[in-house]
Amino acid sequence: MTVPAPRTVPLTALPPAARPRHRRRPARTAWPIAAFLLGYPLWWALGLGGLSVVVLAVPMVVALWRRRPLRAPKGFGLWALLLAGYLVSALTLAETPDGTYGELAAGRVVGYLMRLAVYVSLLIMVLYLGNLTHDELPQRTLVRWLGVLFLTAVAGGLLGVFAPGFAFTSPLEMALPSSIGGNPFVANLIHPTAAQMQHVLGHAAPRPEAPFEWANAWGSDVSVLVIWFVVGWWTYGGPYRRAAAVLALAVAAVPIVYSLNRGLWIGLGVSAAYLVIRGARPLLAGAVAAVAAAAFLLSPLSTIVAQRLDNPHSNGIRAFTVAATVRVAATSPIIGYGNTRNAYGSHRTVTTGRSSWCVECGHPPLGSDGQLWLLMISQGFAGALLYVAFFAGAVRRYWADRTPIGRAGTLVMILVLLYMVVYDGLISALTLYLISFALLWRNAGGASDLGEAR
């Protein structure tokens, strides 16, 4: 009697919960993303911070080269077009449009090359993450690594609140010549500081920024990282992890409030509303949000928020720079001017910009009040449209993904579209946006490894 051979069922045909979990740890091939997310404090101390993604893009390219042919996500051609447009915009770097001042100098070229390196590195990073298998880098692991970076950001925020004067000269800062390191844009990236001192409330007050580039970057990054922290440490966490998550979120409220960051607060409000509407347990989410809101209103932190809302000192500056940016961008709507420009006057005067004899005159460079405006001045309306189309397309494409990662990633894509009018995405924020995009792509491209919560 011949015994029939047992039927072999491919693992991909099994539901996620039924698959063997033979790998508990990510493979060695995933080390670059682990080095970025888990080693971020070290990169910050070295003076690289968000620029570490440029360094780590090198081993990512090597890994991609070895596993050709490669997969690419739907809609990623828009990002490639955005990158191609930025290359073309270099043709106008030397131009000085009407209403602006300044000649082509090393600082403008360095800023352009730095942004170009970041854009290319982020393209590489997305392809790298999307071409790693779930065995090589489980979704749960990647989400929890983002959660670790959230804890790092909270620690940096507390440092900014309680030791705002903390700063030091990084090794990279010491190595660079003053002609490069002295550029304001570069200096913000390579000089580690705990907080920015600003007169937001009518007096000097610290706004946490460690371990990111500046205070607004801290706010944007925290609002994205907290989403993945909740998914990794609460949704897919056990009792101990959930208890730690509640404690961490309570502690995080302190630097979040002291950041005086209205964009961050609005983003958290949008996230809470999204959770109530699209969450798996909307009633529970609503109850938790109500309890958290009541606790906040009864705490001393609510007074700080009220003071910040009563002092919208940056509104006039933003209105001037946005209007000037749109006006200048209209003179080169297809390819832009490759980089930011300085405009004459400010929201208070039309005579001049910042100078040695009037350091209070002027304003931030055109394009520094949000990624949308940066794209307009550097790549014209065409570049801004490609950026919007890329992230709006991701919302449309992944809206139907009702897994925790699908819901969380779609929320991040919505926040990107919100933040683009108030936050400059470069560098750390845009990196987190595209890691979130890669998580969505990985989730849709193959069955998830998450299975049941543990």
Q: What is the distance, rounded to the nearest whole angstrom, between the alpha carbons of the first and last residues?
A: 46 Å
SSE string, helix = H, strand = E?
A: HHHHEHHHHHEEHHHHHHEHHH
How much helix, percentage-wise, in residues? 55-70%
Measured on Cα atoms, how large is the radius of gyration? 23 Å
* Overall pLDDT metric: 82
Largest beta sheet: what is the strand line-up?
1-4
* Dominant shape: globular
Biggest beta sheet summary:
2 strands, antiparallel
Q: Which class do the helix and strand fractions yield?
A: mainly alpha
Number of strands: 4
Strand percentage, roughly?
under 5%
Output the number of helix runs.
18
For the record, the count of structural domains works out to: 1
The low-confidence runs, each spanning 5 or more residues with pLDDT under 50, are 1-23, 347-352, 447-454
Protein name: O-antigen ligase family protein
InterPro entries: WaaL-like (IPR051533)
Keywords: Membrane, Transmembrane, Transmembrane helix
Organism: Microbispora bryophytorum
